[in-house]
Design a protein that fits this description.
438 residues, Growth Hormone, Chain: A, 77% helix, globular
Length: 438
């Protein structure tokens, strides 16, 4: 008799696998016997890693911290480009080598340890430095963290595919995502209470992130991973160079990359939103006062909209990209206007505007991935992915130039430029094909 609700059945089946019964579809019998242990270790390590990632959020936490420490605006503007391009571009050169390793749990664990050490480096920079020195220390540590994250990203999907059956992989990653979101929301709520001074709490959270990354690495080493499965180790940068001709042949690919390029504004904007709000308060050196509400707004936007964007993307990723572009443009233009009017630092104004931008950001993430997969076929998908990732990685690096613009003109100008970029993305999206109907 079945007493478990249908929506809980996948999780129950994954956690209560009978080691004596063959329940796996695409992993060997030896791996299947260890799946219960492996499933739980994946959930624990991924929850720790995602939680640490949320505590070291460069868009919000590190931007606030560097503003508090008096770091130059151009370095604050580099945080997101360092984090995003540093996690993306190295994969193009290292993926082939890393996927040729027979056991990749060691690779993921090494990357997690390096992320932990980098987080501790950020915390130490915040505690013992200020101004330019603190900015350089934090940005440098973040660069190491981003490269280490890229290594983990390449290794993780392969380890998951070798140790957990395909019927349970989504449950493992989804459960970890929900648990880590709860941790970040708890951190945000603690920031809003004022029980612990913000600076001390942020530094403590960074140190905690370093520790739990190392715990994640230690737990991950307990996985029972079989050797082998070293195929698929081609170098992504080679694939990108070999497929440059696709840009000439496929106007839809050119248009898609243009849309995705304009939409990097949704990822790059939050530090400039914080900088603009901080400039309005009486004591800018104390940092923006509503960091907890910003974190909560960001986390709630993700939790409340991801399912809806995913549902819409399965029906029209073109319209999702279009709507995301226009939504981002409205949120950023409104932020710029509020800054010019001097009301951005008022209670709850920036959190509400950030919530709107993060809704658009989630749409961008789901829309772009769905559109790329559906517009390509099995012969072109790898080439499209490598080529678009290479170009976007370079554009993200160039996005560091917004920090220089902000230091010359102020963050308001940057916010209006980014609003125009999002609007252009929405307009260019009109010319994309409805790939879900083809």
């Amino acid at each position: 008799m079945k007493n478990t609700p249908d929506w809980l059945e996948p999780a129950v089946q994954a956690i209560s696998i009978d080691d004596d019964g063959r329940t796996c579809a695409d992993i060997p019998d030896s791996a299947c016997r260890e799946e219960k242990n492996n499933f739980l270790r994946h959930v624990v390590s991924l929850t720790f890693s995602k939680s640490a990632d949320g505590l070291v959020d460069p868009k919000l936490v590190l931007s606030w911290l560097m503003t508090h420490l008096g770091a130059p605006v151009f370095l604050i503007g580099l945080l997101v480009p360092i984090r995003e391009s540093g996690a993306l571009l190295p994969q193009l050169f290292t993926a082939g080598y890393l996927r040729s390793r027979p056991q990749r749990k060691w690779v993921w664990s090494a990357g997690a340890v390096m992320q932990g050490l980098s987080a501790l480096g950020i915390a130490l920079s915040a505690l013992f430095m200020e101004g330019l020195a603190a900015g350089i220390g934090i940005a440098g540590s973040l660069a190491v963290l981003a490269v280490s994250r890229s290594v983990c990203s390449v290794a993780y999907k392969d380890v998951l595919g070798k140790t957990v059956d395909k019927s349970h992989r989504g449950t493992a990653t989804g459960l970890a995502g929900s648990l880590s979101a709860a941790v970040v929301i708890g951190f945000a709520l603690l920031l809003t209470t004022g029980w612990i001074p913000r600076y001390a709490l942020v530094c403590g959270a960074l140190a905690l992130a370093g520790v739990i990354w190392m715990l994640a690495a230690l737990n991950f080493l307990g996985l029972k991973e079989e050797k082998g499965a070293t195929e698929g180790g081609s170098n992504a940068i080679t694939a990108a160079l070999e497929n440059l001709t696709l840009l000439k042949k496929d106007p839809q690919l050119r248009r898609f990359i243009a849309v995705r390029g304009f939409l990097i504004a949704t990822a790059l904007a939050p530090p400039f939103m914080i900088a603009a709000a901080t400039a309005e308060i009486d004591d800018p050196g104390s940092g923006y006062g509503d960091l907890g509400y910003l974190l909560f707004a960001s986390a709630f936007a993700s939790l409340s909209s991801s399912w809806l964007w995913g549902y819409l993307a399965d029906r029209s990723s073109r319209k999702v990209l279009m709507l995301s572009g226009f939504a981002g443009a409205i949120a950023l233009a409104a932020t710029g206007v509020c800054s010019v009017m001097g009301v951005l630092g008022a209670p709850f104004v920036l959190p509400v505007l950030l919530f709107g931008l993060m809704l658009a950001y989630q749409g961008v993430r789901l829309g772009r991935s769905t559109h790329l997969v559906d517009m390509a076929d099995k012969e072109t998908r790898a080439g499209y992915t490598a080529l678009s990732n290479t170009i976007i990685g370079i554009l993200l690096l160039l996005g560091g130039g917004f920090g220089l613009i902000s230091s010359w003109t102020g963050p308001d100008v940057v916010l209006f430029i980014m609003a125009v970029m999002c609007a252009l993305a929405g307009l260019v999206s009109f010319g994309l094909n409805e790939v879900q109907k083809s």
